[in-house]
């Protein structure tokens, strides 16, 4: 009673509360009638059709070994790049604290963007048989990235760290451009979103695992220098894997007769996706 009297005494609070409650309960209704027939009727089959279509597209997209290798590098390298990008500011602050000295972190990021764009532009004008030399180039430039990350983590000179970061980011932008082109060239246009979405999801999953193990205080909780040593080792592992695979591919392609190579390219599975118009017309029937 005392609380009600206090509410009434405030003037506008009591009627506002009553009207709000009235409006809330007046709009509370049970489930709309269309939900029941939708859930138990033939319309629910559209979900089954979509799932089957996605699964079929997924299998067809990753049926090519070349696409699997390029996608694997995409996921692994993007996860490592995300970690370096997220924690580079802490690394620079550890080398030279911003509170006691002048830093040029923003300028370095701008230079990285320009150099990365230039590298991505130039690679489009390089005539290389990427089916033969692509995996080897992934291994070589991943080794360059690994060396740059080690330089960032082990140096005590801020300018050397800046240089390492520019090299690392430029090499990543160069390779991600090549990788994107190679993945897209082995897909039909209808599968682009699914394939790049799956690759990005795997990359984010790996990045989450790295963060949970290396950074999180409940796990290892390592200091920033040790973190970058681990990230450098991570890229070195990627480099070794793709160097081995790249050398094997290059040797196999040069030792194999040209006629066998042409026959293999003809037998390479191609993805054929039904158009959305066809899917909709089949569903209406």
Automatic annotation (TrEMBL):
<dbReference type="Pfam" id="PF01770">
    <property type="entry name" value="Folate_carrier"/>
</dbReference>
<keyword id="KW-1133">Transmembrane helix</keyword>
<comment type="similarity">
    <text>Belongs to the reduced folate carrier (RFC) transporter (TC 2.A.48) family.</text>
</comment>
<protein>
    <submittedName>
        <fullName>Solute carrier family 19 member 3b</fullName>
    </submittedName>
</protein>
<feature type="transmembrane region" description="Helical">
    <location>
        <begin position="227"/>
        <end position="248"/>
    </location>
</feature>
<dbReference type="InterPro" id="IPR002666">
    <property type="entry name" value="Folate_carrier"/>
</dbReference>
<dbReference type="GO" id="GO:0090482">
    <property type="term" value="F:vitamin transmembrane transporter activity"/>
</dbReference>
<keyword id="KW-0472">Membrane</keyword>
<feature type="transmembrane region" description="Helical">
    <location>
        <begin position="67"/>
        <end position="88"/>
    </location>
</feature>
<dbReference type="GO" id="GO:0005886">
    <property type="term" value="C:plasma membrane"/>
</dbReference>
<feature type="compositionally biased region" description="Basic and acidic residues">
    <location>
        <begin position="261"/>
        <end position="271"/>
    </location>
</feature>
<keyword id="KW-0812">Transmembrane</keyword>
<dbReference type="InterPro" id="IPR036259">
    <property type="entry name" value="MFS_trans_sf"/>
</dbReference>
<feature type="transmembrane region" description="Helical">
    <location>
        <begin position="166"/>
        <end position="184"/>
    </location>
</feature>
<feature type="transmembrane region" description="Helical">
    <location>
        <begin position="108"/>
        <end position="126"/>
    </location>
</feature>
<feature type="region of interest" description="Disordered">
    <location>
        <begin position="261"/>
        <end position="285"/>
    </location>
</feature>
<feature type="transmembrane region" description="Helical">
    <location>
        <begin position="138"/>
        <end position="160"/>
    </location>
</feature>
<feature type="transmembrane region" description="Helical">
    <location>
        <begin position="191"/>
        <end position="215"/>
    </location>
</feature>
